[in-house]
Amino acid sequence: MVTDHRKLPRRRGEALNAAIFQATLDELAEAGYAGLTMERVAERARAGKASLYRRWPTRIELVMDAVYHVLPVPSSVPDTGSLRTDVLAALREAARLLSGPAGEAMRGLLSEALADEARAAAFRRRSHGLGRSLMQEITRRAVERGEIDASAVTPRRLDAGQALLRQHFLFAGPPIPDELIVQIVDEVVVPLLTRR
Amino acid sequence: MVTDHRKLPRRRGEALNAAIFQATLDELAEAGYAGLTMERVAERARAGKASLYRRWPTRIELVMDAVYHVLPVPSSVPDTGSLRTDVLAALREAARLLSGPAGEAMRGLLSEALADEARAAAFRRRSHGLGRSLMQEITRRAVERGEIDASAVTPRRLDAGQALLRQHFLFAGPPIPDELIVQIVDEVVVPLLTRR
Amino acid sequence: MVTDHRKLPRRRGEALNAAIFQATLDELAEAGYAGLTMERVAERARAGKASLYRRWPTRIELVMDAVYHVLPVPSSVPDTGSLRTDVLAALREAARLLSGPAGEAMRGLLSEALADEARAAAFRRRSHGLGRSLMQEITRRAVERGEIDASAVTPRRLDAGQALLRQHFLFAGPPIPDELIVQIVDEVVVPLLTRR
Amino acid sequence: MVTDHRKLPRRRGEALNAAIFQATLDELAEAGYAGLTMERVAERARAGKASLYRRWPTRIELVMDAVYHVLPVPSSVPDTGSLRTDVLAALREAARLLSGPAGEAMRGLLSEALADEARAAAFRRRSHGLGRSLMQEITRRAVERGEIDASAVTPRRLDAGQALLRQHFLFAGPPIPDELIVQIVDEVVVPLLTRR
DNA sequence: CTCTAAACGAGACGGTACGTCCAGTCTTCGG
DNA sequence: CCGAAGACTGGACGTACCGTCTCGTTTAGAG
Questions:
Q1: Lowest mean pLDDT among A110-124, B104-118, D66-80
Q2: pLDDT at position A107
Q3: From the first residue on, what is the mean pLDDT of each consecutive set of 10 residues in chain D (196 residues)?
Q4: Which of A37, A8, A28 has its CA nearest to residue A107?
Q5: Which residues of D touch C124 (CB under 8 A)?
Q6: Quick check: C1 pLDDT over 70?
Q7: A159 touching chain B per CB within 8 A
Q8: Which residues contact C8 (CB under 8 A, 6 or more apart)?
Q9: Domains of chain B with bracketed CATH
Q10: Closest residue in B to A121 (Cα–Cα)
Q11: Rounded to whole angstroms, how far apart are CA atoms D146 and D135?
C-alpha cells in the first residue's frame, strides 16, 4: 500500500469500505480463509477493529461482502448458438471464478456459513443460485431452438455440471484443468439433456 | 499435594486414544468442526494437550482419525441384482454417513486439508475415493450382467451421483431428503450409464 | 428520515453545563471516579462528546468543576465562642463534604492531578487550602479572646486535624464516625494549641 | 525466601514472578499508576497476559504484591535512646518509602482499593498498619524510660505524624523536604506526647 | 425578521487496552 | 524414564473508551 492515511483526512463510508474489502481480499490470497483474522484485516486497511465490527459482525459476512463486491454476479449469459458451447462457456466462467478469491472464500465459508439459516441462505444465493439460473437460461434457449426436449430438463440435471466442477475444486483445489470441463460437458451435461 | 484423588487409573495407549476419539466426536457434534479446539477436546477427554499433539500434529489429523475410527470404510458393496437399486443403496449409505460426524468433519476439513499435498491425498482417499471405487464395482457388475455397455462408463459419470449428493449436503446441510437421492439416481446416474 | 422527533429543545451554555455537571455527579456516585468515563457522562447528559471536550480537556477538570459547582466553598467560618466547638464544627463540616461527591472526587484526583503543576495547584487550592484558611480564622479569634497563645499556632498544627480526618477517609472510606472527630479535636487539635 | 541454586528446582513460577514484579515497578516509575497497563507489564516482562491474570485478577493486586515484594515491611524499629530521634528516624524512613514506588502505588490505589472490603483491608494492612505499630513500639520504650506518660498515648496521637506526612505527599508529591519532617516532630508529635 | 455563524447531538473514525480463549511448546512430576 | 498434566509465550478474539473529526440541525444574535 502506498498512501499513508495518517496524513490524509479520515476515510468514511464507501471509501473506507473499499479499503477494507481490498485488505480482506489480500489477506484471503496470502493466508487463506482459515488464516484470515479481523485483526490483520484491520491493520492492513489501517482501520480500527471497531470499524470492521460495526459493519460486519463476523468474518463470514465480511468475506462474503468483500468477495462479491469485487466479483459481482456476471449477468451475461453465454449465447453461442449451441447447447454444448453455451454450457462449456458457462462452466469455464465458473471455473475462472473458483480459481480466484471467490473459490478460497467458498471453501472456508462452507464450514461456518450454515450456523444460522439467514447466513446460509445468503451464502447459497450468492454462490449456488448463480449456476442454476444460468443453466436454466441456456437450456431454455436450447429448447426454443429445438435442440433438446423440455422434458429432459430437471433440476438435478441442471446442477450436475456445477456439482462435478465444484467437487473437483473443493477436493483438489485450483487450478481446474480445462480437459476436465470438456469431459463434464461431453460425458455428462450434454448427454443428459439431449437424451430422447 | 500429597495424594492424587483421581478415581480412574491413568489411561495409556489405546484406552487413552479411544477416550480422545470419543471426546473429539462429541465436540464435533456439539460445536461443529469450526468450533472444535484441541483445548476442549483435551479437557473433555481429561487428557493433557501434549498427549494430543504427540499423536496428531494438527486437528485435521485428529478429526480424520477420530471419524475413521468409529466409522470405518464400509467394505460391503451393495449387490441387489440391478444397477438402479445398487446405486440407490450406495447413495443412501453415503447420505447416512454424511449426516453423521463424517459429514461435519468433511465440511470443515475442506478449508484446511489442502494446505499440504500429503494431507490432501489422505483426505481424498478417505472421503472421495470411497464413492468412486464403490461405483466402479457396481458398474462392473452391471456390465457383466449385460445391463449396461462398458463404453458408457467414464470417471465423470461415476462421480456424478456423489457430486450432486455432496453439493446438496455442503450447501444445505443435513438431513438429506430421500426424494433427492431417488431423483439423482433416476434422472442422472441411471440415464447416463444406460444410454445406448 | 425527515423529521426530528426529539422532545427537548437543544440546550446551550449554562443549561448544558448544568446538565453535564449533574450527569458527572451521578456517574461519580454510581461508578466512582475510577469508573467514570467521558463517554458515559456525555450519554447520560444526552450531549455530544465534543461538547464535553470543548469545555474540559480532561476528566480531571470536568470532575473538579462539577464537584465545586454544586458544592461551593462554604465561606461561613463557624463562630461558637470557643476554640473547641469552632474546630469541632469545622471538622464536622469537612467530614460531611468528604462523605459526598467531593470525597469520591478527591480520592480519584489524587492519582491524576499531580501530572502537571497547574492542575495540582488548582486541586490543592480547592481541596486543601480551604481547611487551612478556616483554621487560621478560628485560631485568630481564639488568640483575640486570649484563649490560646499566638506562638502556639504553626502551619503543621493547623493542618493536623484535617490530616487525621483525611487519612481516615482515604484509607477507610465513608462514613466517618463522629466519635473519631471528637477524639481528633480533644486529643490532638485542642491540646496542641492550648499548650502553655 | 532463600533460593538454593544447586538442587532445589527453581520453580518456573517464582522466576517469572520476579520478572513480572520488576516490570511492574519499572512501568510504575515510567508511567505512574494511572498509566500502568497489564498489557505493557506483560510485554515488558516478556510474559503472556494470561500469566499475569492467572496470578492477579486485577492490577490492584499486582501492584500491591509487586511493591510489597521489593519493599517488605522494615521490621527494625529505630531505637536511638530518645523519643524525638526515634520518631524522626521513623518518619524519615516513611518519607523515603513514599518517595519510591510504594508512594506512587499508594496514591493510585486509593481510588480503587476500596471497591471491596477484602482488598481495602489488605491495602490498609500493608500501607497503614506499618506506621501505627512502629509508633506503638517507640512510645512503649519512651514510657519505659519514663520520658513520657502512658496516659498521653492515644491512637489519634500515634497517627498524627503519619497523617501529616502523607497529606503532604499526597497533595504535593515527592520529594518530601526534611524540614517538614522536623517540624512535624517538634511542633506536633513530641508536644502531643510529652504534655503532662 | 431574516440570515449566518457558532454551538450542538450524534456518532464514525484510528487507536489502545481490556480480560478471555486457544495454539503449540516446554517443564514438572507421578507411575 | 516415559508420558500425563498443565503452565508457559504469543496472538486473536470482540468490547469499551479515548480524543478527534465530520455531518446535519438548531439557535442566538447581527444586520
A1: D66-80
A2: 92
A3: 30 82 94 94 94 94 91 76 95 92 92 85 81 91 95 96 96 95 98 86
A4: A28
A5: 171-172
A6: no
A7: yes
A8: C46
A9: 13-69 (1.10.10.60), 72-194 (1.10.357.10)
A10: B172
A11: 16
Chains sharing 3 or more CB pairs under 8 A with chain C: D
Helices (H) and strands (E) in chain A, counts: 11, 0
Three-state SS string across D119-178, please?
Answer: HHHHHHHHHCHHHHHHHHHHHHHHHHCCCCCHHHCCHHHHHHHHHHHHHHHHHHCCCCCH
Strand E bases with any atom < 7 A from protein Cβ: 7-31
Nucleotides of F under 7 A from a protein CB: 3-23, 25-28
Contact C172 D120 (CB under 8 A): yes
Asked if the C-beta of B31 comes within 8 angstroms of chain A's C-beta atoms, the answer is: no
**CA of B40, C1' of F5: distance in angstroms:** 14
Q: Which nucleotide is nearest to C3 (CA to C1')?
A: F25
- Give the largest Cα separation in chain C, rounded: 81
Higher pLDDT, D193 or C111: D193
| C-alpha closest to that of D94 among D164, D147, D172 | D164
Q: What is the helix (H) or strand (E) element at residue B111, kind and residue range? A: none
What's the pLDDT score for residue B13?
A: 65
Average pLDDT, chain B: 87
Q: What is the mean pLDDT of residues B65-84?
A: 82
Q: What number is the average pLDDT over the span C21-38? A: 95
Report CA(D63)–C1'(F5) in Å, whole number. 31
The arithmetic mean of pLDDT across residues B96-106, rounded, is 91
Nucleotide nearest the Cα atom of A5 (by C1'):
E14
CB D83 within 8 A of CB D135: no
Give me the residue label for grid cell 520520658: D147
Nucleotide nearest to D54 (CA to C1'): F7
Closest CA to C25 of C74, C69, C73: C69
* pLDDT of residue A129 exceeding 80: no
pLDDT score, position B196: 61
Asked whether at least 3 C-beta pairs link C and D within 8 Å, the reply is: yes
Chain A residues 26 to 85 whose Cβ lies within 7 Å of strand E are 46-51, 54-55
Residue D86 CA from chain centroid, whole number:
18
Query: Count of residues for chain C?
Result: 196
Q: Verify whether the Cβ–Cβ distance D110 to C107 is below 8 Å.
A: yes
CB contact at 8 A, B38 and B52:
yes
Contact between residue C83 and residue C193 where contact means Cβ atoms under 8 Å apart: yes
Contact A45, A22 (CB under 8 A): yes
D169 Cβ under 8 Å from any chain C Cβ: no
